[in-house]
Amino acid sequence: MSMNRFVELVIITRLKVKLIKELVYDTTLEIHMNNLVTNLSYFRSLLKPTTKIMVMVKAFSYGLGTYDVAKLLEENKVDYLGVANTFEGIELRNAGIKIPIMVMKPEIDSFDLVKEHQLTPTIFSLHALNKLIETLDNSTPFSITLKIDTGMHRLGFDSNEISELLKILSKNPFLKIESIFLIWLLLMKKNMMNLLISRLKNSQL
After folding, report:
1. Which of 127, 128, 133, 191 would you label with 105, given CA atoms 20 to 30 Å apart?
2. Domains of the chain, CATH where assigned
3. Tens digits of per-residue pLDDT, 158-183?
4. From CA 111, how far away is CA 135, in angstroms rounded?
Protein backbone atom coordinates (compact mmCIF):
# COMPACT_ATOMS: atom_id res chain seq x y z
CA MET A 1 0.00 0.00 0.00
CA SER A 2 1.25 3.45 -0.89
CA MET A 3 0.10 6.49 1.06
CA ASN A 4 0.29 10.03 -0.27
CA ARG A 5 -0.39 13.02 1.92
CA PHE A 6 -1.83 16.20 0.52
CA VAL A 7 -1.95 19.57 2.24
CA GLU A 8 -4.82 21.83 1.28
CA LEU A 9 -4.20 25.53 1.85
CA VAL A 10 -7.29 27.67 2.28
CA ILE A 11 -7.03 31.46 2.41
CA ILE A 12 -9.98 33.33 3.91
CA THR A 13 -10.14 37.05 3.28
CA ARG A 14 -12.32 39.28 5.38
CA LEU A 15 -12.43 42.48 3.41
CA LYS A 16 -14.01 44.60 6.11
CA VAL A 17 -11.22 44.05 8.60
CA LYS A 18 -8.55 43.26 5.96
CA LEU A 19 -7.78 40.00 7.72
CA ILE A 20 -6.10 37.15 5.88
CA LYS A 21 -6.04 33.88 7.73
CA GLU A 22 -4.50 30.65 6.54
CA LEU A 23 -6.11 27.35 7.45
CA VAL A 24 -4.24 24.12 6.77
CA TYR A 25 -6.14 20.86 6.37
CA ASP A 26 -4.09 17.66 6.49
CA THR A 27 -5.82 15.11 4.24
CA THR A 28 -4.68 11.51 3.79
CA LEU A 29 -5.33 9.50 0.62
CA GLU A 30 -4.69 5.77 0.93
CA ILE A 31 -3.86 3.91 -2.29
CA HIS A 32 -3.98 0.12 -2.23
CA MET A 33 -1.56 -0.86 -4.96
CA ASN A 34 -2.67 -4.49 -4.91
CA ASN A 35 -6.14 -3.32 -6.01
CA LEU A 36 -4.55 -1.52 -8.94
CA VAL A 37 -2.87 -4.75 -9.99
CA THR A 38 -6.16 -6.65 -9.58
CA ASN A 39 -7.98 -4.15 -11.79
CA LEU A 40 -5.23 -4.32 -14.41
CA SER A 41 -5.42 -8.12 -14.44
CA TYR A 42 -9.19 -8.00 -14.87
CA PHE A 43 -9.09 -5.70 -17.88
CA ARG A 44 -6.23 -7.70 -19.36
CA SER A 45 -8.38 -10.84 -19.09
CA LEU A 46 -10.98 -9.20 -21.36
CA LEU A 47 -8.46 -8.64 -24.16
CA LYS A 48 -6.75 -10.85 -26.67
CA PRO A 49 -3.18 -11.76 -25.66
CA THR A 50 -1.91 -9.79 -28.67
CA THR A 51 -3.71 -6.60 -27.65
CA LYS A 52 -1.38 -4.04 -26.12
CA ILE A 53 -2.25 -1.95 -23.08
CA MET A 54 -1.43 1.69 -22.41
CA VAL A 55 -2.16 3.21 -19.00
CA MET A 56 -2.44 6.95 -18.49
CA VAL A 57 -0.26 8.31 -15.70
CA LYS A 58 -0.55 11.99 -16.55
CA ALA A 59 -1.11 14.69 -13.93
CA PHE A 60 0.71 12.87 -11.11
CA SER A 61 -1.22 9.71 -12.05
CA TYR A 62 -4.40 11.67 -11.38
CA GLY A 63 -3.15 12.43 -7.89
CA LEU A 64 -2.04 8.91 -7.03
CA GLY A 65 1.71 9.43 -7.33
CA THR A 66 3.46 9.30 -10.69
CA TYR A 67 6.56 7.19 -10.04
CA ASP A 68 5.05 4.60 -7.67
CA VAL A 69 2.17 3.90 -10.04
CA ALA A 70 4.37 3.92 -13.15
CA LYS A 71 6.87 1.54 -11.59
CA LEU A 72 4.13 -0.87 -10.53
CA LEU A 73 2.64 -0.81 -14.03
CA GLU A 74 6.05 -1.42 -15.57
CA GLU A 75 6.61 -4.40 -13.26
CA ASN A 76 3.23 -5.76 -14.34
CA LYS A 77 4.18 -5.64 -18.01
CA VAL A 78 1.96 -2.92 -19.44
CA ASP A 79 3.10 -1.97 -22.93
CA TYR A 80 2.95 1.81 -22.73
CA LEU A 81 2.52 4.65 -20.29
CA GLY A 82 0.68 7.79 -21.38
CA VAL A 83 1.53 11.31 -20.22
CA ALA A 84 0.13 14.73 -21.04
CA ASN A 85 3.29 16.57 -22.02
CA THR A 86 6.98 16.12 -22.71
CA PHE A 87 8.16 17.08 -19.25
CA GLU A 88 6.01 14.46 -17.55
CA GLY A 89 7.70 11.90 -19.79
CA ILE A 90 11.15 13.22 -18.94
CA GLU A 91 10.32 13.00 -15.24
CA LEU A 92 9.51 9.30 -15.63
CA ARG A 93 12.67 8.63 -17.61
CA ASN A 94 14.75 10.39 -14.97
CA ALA A 95 13.08 8.20 -12.35
CA GLY A 96 14.23 5.08 -14.17
CA ILE A 97 11.13 4.05 -16.13
CA LYS A 98 12.22 2.14 -19.26
CA ILE A 99 9.02 1.07 -21.04
CA PRO A 100 7.62 3.13 -23.96
CA ILE A 101 6.05 6.45 -22.98
CA MET A 102 3.54 8.15 -25.26
CA VAL A 103 3.16 11.93 -25.02
CA MET A 104 -0.43 12.99 -25.76
CA LYS A 105 0.30 16.67 -26.49
CA PRO A 106 4.03 17.31 -26.91
CA GLU A 107 5.06 20.95 -26.98
CA ILE A 108 6.09 21.99 -30.49
CA ASP A 109 9.50 23.23 -29.31
CA SER A 110 10.26 20.10 -27.27
CA PHE A 111 10.80 17.55 -30.05
CA ASP A 112 14.55 17.54 -29.43
CA LEU A 113 13.85 16.50 -25.83
CA VAL A 114 11.31 13.93 -27.01
CA LYS A 115 14.04 12.31 -29.10
CA GLU A 116 16.70 12.60 -26.39
CA HIS A 117 14.52 10.81 -23.81
CA GLN A 118 13.11 8.25 -26.25
CA LEU A 119 9.49 9.33 -25.95
CA THR A 120 6.80 8.68 -28.55
CA PRO A 121 5.06 11.92 -29.58
CA THR A 122 1.45 12.14 -30.66
CA ILE A 123 1.30 14.16 -33.87
CA PHE A 124 -2.04 15.89 -34.39
CA SER A 125 -1.42 18.64 -36.97
CA LEU A 126 0.53 19.29 -40.16
CA HIS A 127 2.35 22.11 -38.37
CA ALA A 128 3.53 19.74 -35.62
CA LEU A 129 4.52 17.11 -38.18
CA ASN A 130 6.62 19.55 -40.20
CA LYS A 131 8.24 20.90 -37.04
CA LEU A 132 9.14 17.37 -35.98
CA ILE A 133 10.72 16.64 -39.36
CA GLU A 134 12.77 19.84 -39.14
CA THR A 135 14.04 18.81 -35.69
CA LEU A 136 14.99 15.20 -36.37
CA ASP A 137 17.89 13.60 -38.16
CA ASN A 138 16.11 11.79 -40.97
CA SER A 139 18.69 9.04 -41.10
CA THR A 140 17.41 7.44 -37.88
CA PRO A 141 14.00 5.69 -37.68
CA PHE A 142 11.65 7.49 -35.30
CA SER A 143 8.28 6.25 -34.01
CA ILE A 144 5.24 8.50 -33.84
CA THR A 145 1.54 8.21 -33.05
CA LEU A 146 -1.13 9.91 -35.14
CA LYS A 147 -4.23 11.51 -33.65
CA ILE A 148 -7.27 11.69 -35.95
CA ASP A 149 -10.12 14.10 -35.29
CA THR A 150 -13.41 12.21 -35.54
CA GLY A 151 -15.78 14.91 -34.37
CA MET A 152 -14.58 16.31 -31.04
CA HIS A 153 -12.67 19.10 -32.82
CA ARG A 154 -9.99 19.57 -30.18
CA LEU A 155 -6.86 17.96 -31.58
CA GLY A 156 -6.24 15.70 -34.54
CA PHE A 157 -5.98 15.58 -38.31
CA ASP A 158 -9.22 16.42 -40.08
CA SER A 159 -10.45 14.29 -42.95
CA ASN A 160 -9.46 16.95 -45.48
CA GLU A 161 -5.85 16.80 -44.24
CA ILE A 162 -5.34 13.05 -44.70
CA SER A 163 -4.05 13.32 -48.28
CA GLU A 164 -1.42 15.90 -47.32
CA LEU A 165 -0.52 13.88 -44.23
CA LEU A 166 0.13 10.76 -46.28
CA LYS A 167 2.12 12.74 -48.83
CA ILE A 168 4.44 14.11 -46.12
CA LEU A 169 4.84 10.69 -44.50
CA SER A 170 5.71 9.05 -47.81
CA LYS A 171 8.48 11.61 -48.34
CA ASN A 172 9.89 10.94 -44.87
CA PRO A 173 10.13 7.14 -44.52
CA PHE A 174 12.24 7.43 -41.36
CA LEU A 175 9.00 8.26 -39.53
CA LYS A 176 7.39 5.04 -38.34
CA ILE A 177 3.70 5.05 -37.42
CA GLU A 178 3.52 3.12 -34.17
CA SER A 179 -0.20 3.65 -33.61
CA ILE A 180 -3.23 5.71 -34.58
CA PHE A 181 -5.81 6.81 -32.07
CA LEU A 182 -9.19 8.48 -32.17
CA ILE A 183 -12.47 8.59 -30.27
CA TRP A 184 -14.65 5.84 -31.68
CA LEU A 185 -17.83 7.08 -30.03
CA LEU A 186 -17.58 10.26 -32.05
CA LEU A 187 -16.72 8.51 -35.29
CA MET A 188 -19.87 9.55 -37.15
CA LYS A 189 -18.35 8.90 -40.55
CA LYS A 190 -16.92 5.39 -40.42
CA ASN A 191 -15.90 5.68 -44.05
CA MET A 192 -13.26 8.17 -42.96
CA MET A 193 -11.41 5.58 -40.87
CA ASN A 194 -11.77 2.91 -43.53
CA LEU A 195 -10.37 5.34 -46.08
CA LEU A 196 -7.41 6.18 -43.83
CA ILE A 197 -6.58 2.50 -43.22
CA SER A 198 -6.84 1.75 -46.92
CA ARG A 199 -4.57 4.66 -47.85
CA LEU A 200 -2.02 3.73 -45.21
CA LYS A 201 -1.87 0.17 -46.53
CA ASN A 202 -1.56 1.33 -50.13
CA SER A 203 1.16 3.82 -49.27
CA GLN A 204 3.15 1.06 -47.54
CA LEU A 205 3.92 3.29 -44.56
Report:
1. 191
2. 48-203 (3.20.20.10)
3. 878 888 999 999 999 999 999 888 76
4. 7
